[in-house]
Design goal:
Elements: E1 3-8, E2 11-16, H1 25-36, H2 45-57, E3 62-71, E4 74-84, H3 89-92, E5 105-113, H4 121-134, E6 140-145, H5 148-157, E7 159-167, E8 174-183
Parallel strand pairs: 5-6
Antiparallel strand pairs: 1-2, 2-3, 3-4, 4-5, 6-8, 7-8
Amino acid sequence: METVLATRGDAHFCISQDFQGIYLCPIVDNLKDKLVNGSWDDYNEAFHCCRLIHEFRKRPGLQIDFHTMSRGQEYLGLAIMSHGNIDPQLYASSGIHFSEPLEQVLLFNYFHISPFGRGNGYFWLTNVIMPWYAERGFKAIYMKSSHPKAFSLYSRLGTVIGEYTAKSDNGVFDRPGRIFRVALQ
């Protein structure tokens, strides 16, 4: 069941603890955009997102929150946050250690907005998602990203605390990434 957290124009920003396949539409829209516009980077975000959800579901005590942005019946955005029984090794391989107690930490796992919903990301993060968790006592959000176009947004919200390089799905490309810490309080 989705709970509406905010509305902006005709867009609704919701949260749910139950995953629905339709939530992947913004990721698939972005994959299609990469294929059509010739910017394919040998990385299938939909596959990786599904794998992450299944892996996280196996971890007892780990809560997964699915934030969605929709317009009517069309899903235009997906943000996945996890908290609870976090595995600190997820970031330790990059040399990053959490500076807060784990029960006060959020992992920002995915953030995708389809081309049809762009222009709402900063609002969604700063006016909906971040306040929602700050009110619940969380102190910081940690996120890893290998999407250079998102770096400026994440830098406005927080601080770069690390860098890493990963390979694309078939080892064709290096994917340089950054790790960000966003303080909530």
